[in-house]
Amino acid sequence: MRSIGTRHWIFLAAALALLAVGGGWENTTGLLRAAAASANRAVDAPASPPYLYYLPQIARDHAPSTLTTYDWLQFGFDSKHSGNDTQETAITPGNVGALHLLFQITLPNIADGAPVFLSGVTTNSGVRDLVFVTTKDGRIVALDAHTGAQIWSHQYGPGSCTSSNGGVCYTTSSPAIDPNRQYVYSYGLDGYVHKYAVGDGTETTTGGWPQLTSLKPWNEKGSSALAIATAKSGASYLYVAHAGYPGDKGDYQGHITAINLATGVQNVFNTVCSNQTVHFVDTPNSPDCPQVQTAIWARPGVIYDPDNDKIYMATGNGDFAPASYDWGDTVFALDPAGTGSNGNPLNTYTPTNYQQLQNGDTDIGSTAPAILPPASGKYAHLGVQGGKDGVLRLLNMDNLSGQGTTGKTGGEVFTMNFPPGGEILTQPAVWVNPNDNSTWVFVANDSGIAGLQLTIDGGGNPSLQSRWTGSNGTSPIIANGILFYARGGQISALDPTSGKSLWSNNQIGSIHWESQIVASGILYITDGSKHLTAYSP
Description:
Strand order of the largest sheet: 1-30-31-32-33
Helix content: under 10%
Shape: globular
């Protein structure tokens, strides 16, 4: 850490003096930012002396009461994983061009997912806003959201765990925060999801915790983000999805574990042999299923639609054989507790060319349904489903197959090729333009990004119309009318209706599954160089 020069202390002293004499937040903020920028505080350890290290915290603590903070509790912001941050006010289209580096720290390992954010947490060092990340080696890390300083961490794995593809076990999961704001959940490489007190990391070891989610974590990978939803009944559930390691090797079965956060009771739904609601073990032991694959591996894992009170997910390659309770290449619905009916899902969609998709490894399980707001026309509840085949499908979420039953094929109400082309391995973002109430969907992949607008024709038929395309990237988000997304070495902000560039920065590393969040005026992203990087205006 380089030392703090006289110029930095002049800025800091002036700012604190203004606060002391009632100089006003608007006058003080600029001097505080100047002090932080002048110190170029972008390292792991606090500067010395400590006052500069806590400068962002000083600023927050002295902010006027009208300056509000809010939380980003899970991947995609809400239980629909819409990617639409409806609460941001500090970063605006007018000041997004002034975003600059707040800090960049090096994590213990790569966090190949998205952070979560919780404001106003009581810690051993006072009240702090915290960012949480899950790293590939089964670690959860809690960090000061304004400085990047580590508050606490825990690790489960990898130990001696060797995955079925010959490598060390790892996860690309993301954490999720309990709606009660007291606990954060993270997947460990031991096959369990763990529950920690947000302030000091104390782990809960009673009431069924940690919760078992896989009996063979060396074959079953925690790929997707943890998800939480509160059903219409008032019960809140944590969802843990499992997939396989790259290469589709090993004895694994895609499944979800739904955990009631109040009672600790869990339900298991398997995507093959779905009539068996248990965690499977390795063949030839029992219980097991002779079929494998059908991974649930999309970035958000499980989607909750509050309009019809169901959860949705999509599966990858594997057998589609409803008579045998096998659901490869299928979008399906369950009730919020993670249960279906008579061993089957409640509702299913399977493309008519499912066998071709499996043979070509072009399954639809690479994304989860993106839920659109209620629409006029023939279908009140629509969802957008992508896939490795590069096709976007509009589905009727109330009747996925269009035939009112499970196990049928076809039923999509509209299809189009993704305009830039290529496999879709990311999660779309959904946004309603407040200027005209139009619904937009933003999809990005290695070939490009597209802004798509929902239209309804005179007969009530829905379609997606491409309005603009741009450079490649990962799962986008919307915050206060600004579209953010990242690709290797660069994070960008765009106008969502035109695709026009508003800001970009090239201080991040490579990007795989990582995606950004915006919380209380700060933009955060992890990358393949083990960084957590934060920007503020």
